[in-house]
Amino acid sequence: MAEVVDCRGLPCPEPVVKAKRAVEASSDVVEVLVDDVVARENLVKLGRGMNWKVDVTEADGCFKVVFDKDGVSLPHATVPNEPGLCTLPMSTTVFINADSIGKGSDELGGALMKSFLYSLTQIDACPERIIFMNSGVRLVIEGSPVLEVLSELKARGVEIWACGTCLEYFGIKDRVAVGEISNMYSIVQAFMDSAKVITV
């Protein structure tokens, strides 16, 4: 019989943390219950990152995410070696924790941020991912002055992550226009797994 872990109503990143502990400690299938789309997606990402088989079903607003670490493994996400994509391997994470660079002038800081992100599209060795937190999440929403640049980076294989808690704080979670909503557990894990973290 599968172990059931009820994470309904729990804030980020508790569902991911509880699911990971349960699956690692179990010799059987683990079912995790969540009632939030972002939590569901975060659990699927966890499974993929750990090469576990993951199945998702929905009933009455509840998502059941089933983990089977002895099942058929899901491959890690890979970036095809095609023209226009960044040179591999990629092992750098860029961390953006504000919507502008530096202090003194918001106008100048915004221009510097736009220039920085554009410059990333002009080099061959792109980062593996760009993580946005605090007011930095404003850069991934509708109307952002860098949406086109971020979309180009995403098309070249760069992962665009935005902190779900930050989006909720600013009331803009439903306005994300590029990338994916992530959680603190996954963000910390990404930092630890990266060969280099660049804070802008």
Record the SSE blueprint.
Layout: E1 3-6, H1 14-25, E2 30-34, H2 37-49, E3 53-59, E4 62-68, E5 92-96, H3 106-120, E6 129-132, H4 147-155, E7 159-163, H5 164-170, E8 180-182, H6 184-193, E9 196-199
Parallel strand pairs: 1-2, 5-6, 5-9, 6-7, 7-8
Antiparallel strand pairs: 2-4, 3-4
Helix pairs in contact: 1-2
Structural summary, described in words:
- It is a single chain.
- With about 200 residues, the protein is an alpha/beta fold.
- The chain has 2 domains: about 70 residues, Translation Initiation Factor IF3 (2-Layer Sandwich), CATH 3.30.110; about 110 residues, Hypothetical Protein Ychn, Chain: A.
- It is about 35% helix and about 20% strand.
- It is built from 6 helices and 9 strands.
- The strands form 2 sheets. Strands 8-7-6-5-9 form a 5-stranded parallel β-sheet. A 4-stranded mixed β-sheet has the order 1-2-4-3, covered by helices on one side.
- Helix 1 packs parallel to helix 2.
- The N and C termini lie far apart (about 50 Å).
- About 5% of the residues have low confidence.
Sum up the structure in keywords.
200 residues, alpha/beta, Hypothetical Protein Ychn, Chain: A, five-stranded parallel β-sheet, four-stranded mixed β-sheet, 33% helix
**Average pLDDT reading:** 87
- Note poorly predicted spans: 73-83
Query: What is Rg?
Result: 18 Å
Q: Number of helical segments?
A: 6
CATH architecture annotation name of the largest domain: 3-Layer(aba) Sandwich
User: Roughly how much helix do the residues carry, as a percent range?
Assistant: 25-40%
CATH C-level class of the largest domain is Alpha Beta
